């Protein structure tokens, strides 16, 4: 069975429709229809990698946060990000929308001079009667009551672990540790990457409502007021103590001290050393092998057929793939809440991977194969926008692309989360980012998916998992025996099988892939040489390959520079050595003199500066 990128594009369209639907049905926005229009334009701009993304993002955020309901799109001009042009587009879009549903288009708002009109009203008894009515509307504020599992609720519960009347207080970290289990949002990480406040901001609200005393010590300490204790007791009565009442907390609970160990166990870190050892063992068992010059040198493949029902599709999540250092379990927990069956462990390649996990753990051992997981055809590399910029600057981006291409996995999905950046900072690197995205799509054949925040990424991964379960679990899998694999024949063998059996997919065990894809264990001289070349400014993977075709090894390139001589004439020859050989090429393979000079400064050694 072969899955194409058309499946991903179909899922992409469904995901975009979901985003528009979320905007239209948003109960937190006073203008959901207008917000839906802006959300659609924003998503279109993202898909086209347009420079208008920043403009639409500002408009979207300001409209979503606006508490005022507009009667006409022109009123949105008062918001950040909205000008005459965007308001005009909104008006046209709303008119089309009204025509479709058969509703009249709202009229332009009239400018009313309410103050001046009020001045001409006579001073009769009606005016005197209005004053008391206005005063009557000023009701006494209601007693502040935090919502269940909200930020302030968790803080109240945490502080109620102290003895009533105690003024010793808890530090901020102690409060957070006790409050987090009783709050749906994080006290340390913003729920939305475009915002900067966390659930801890509710501490200020509790202080204003005289529910918490904040002692200005170093560090600050917090304890409940008498009103705070009354509120805590009401929470205890309202909710079952076994589900979060104050009696269940104990600040001196010894289990708190082992929270890091528990988290490590939850995420598979406890067994991380064993996984790494197994990967190294497999890497040692897969030889380098001879360089393949023709298909006749490839081994004969007698695939092991895994019948439907003998395995389940499972998501693998890298244990370093976290929301933040202080919120390591967010991604895994949210995926589990959505019904995704997953394993968290160190991955040799990528951030998210899908495998066929054998129902019988010893099934593969009958064929002398290690482990109980078989690789599928999809892998995900996830990057926040700021991470992507950083990896482009330090060269990790090209090295990661190189390893993904060498993995033999047919479908690489590159997820980019639109982490909120300073506009000036983003504009500085916008061209590099757009170039990198285009290169991944056009040159490398990667599928690039852009999401607004981590929750959208989690939703997308959930949809992918369900799609893979529906397609893979109904068909048999063909497994290549590990004993015939070498680091040199792996990619040529996959290419040969694809040409010979275009309608079928061939897989290997996850342990074998981990060994072949090791960052250093199976690197050939050619691999290392290409990576060395790509460290030079201006050298992409395509240019590095062309250089390697002409000078096969680092020794050959260094020898070519030495033959140029060290006098002034030789120095100029060194600067032009590569450009003279590759200046005639077209497109991305061409190397200009400036880049050729950079290469000479690195590889020409003596006599070049």
TrEMBL record:
SMART domains per the UniProt record, alphabetical: ERCC4
Record CDD domains: WH_MUS81 (cd21036), XPF_nuclease_Mus81 (cd20074)
Statement: the UniProt record of this protein carries the keyword Ligase: no
Keywords: DNA damage, DNA recombination, DNA repair, Endonuclease, Hydrolase, Magnesium, Meiosis, Metal-binding, Nuclease, Nucleus
Coiled coil: none
Required cofactor(s): Mg(2+)
Region (Disordered): 102-143
Entry's Gene Ontology molecular function annotations: 3'-flap endonuclease activity; crossover junction DNA endonuclease activity; DNA binding; metal ion binding
One Pfam family matching this protein: HHH_8
SUPFAM superfamilies with a match to the protein in the record: DNA polymerase beta, N-terminal domain-like, Restriction endonuclease-like
InterPro entries: DNA_pol_lamdba_lyase_dom_sf, EME1/EME2_C, ERCC4_domain, HHH_MUS81, Mus81, Restrct_endonuc-II-like, WH-like_DNA-bd_sf, WHD_MUS81
One of the protein's GO biological processes: double-strand break repair via break-induced replication
Domain ERCC4: 314-420
EC number: 3.1.22.-
Subcellular location(s) per record: Nucleus
Function, as annotated: Interacts with EME1 to form a DNA structure-specific endonuclease with substrate preference for branched DNA structures with a 5'-end at the branch nick. Typical substrates include 3'-flap structures, D-loops, replication forks and nicked Holliday junctions. May be required in mitosis for the processing of stalled or collapsed replication fork intermediates. May be required in meiosis for the repair of meiosis-specific double strand breaks subsequent to single-end invasion (SEI).
Family (UniProt): Belongs to the XPF family.
Subunit structure: Interacts with EME1.
Name of the molecule in the record: Crossover junction endonuclease MUS81
Organism of this sequence: Glarea lozoyensis (strain ATCC 20868 / MF5171)
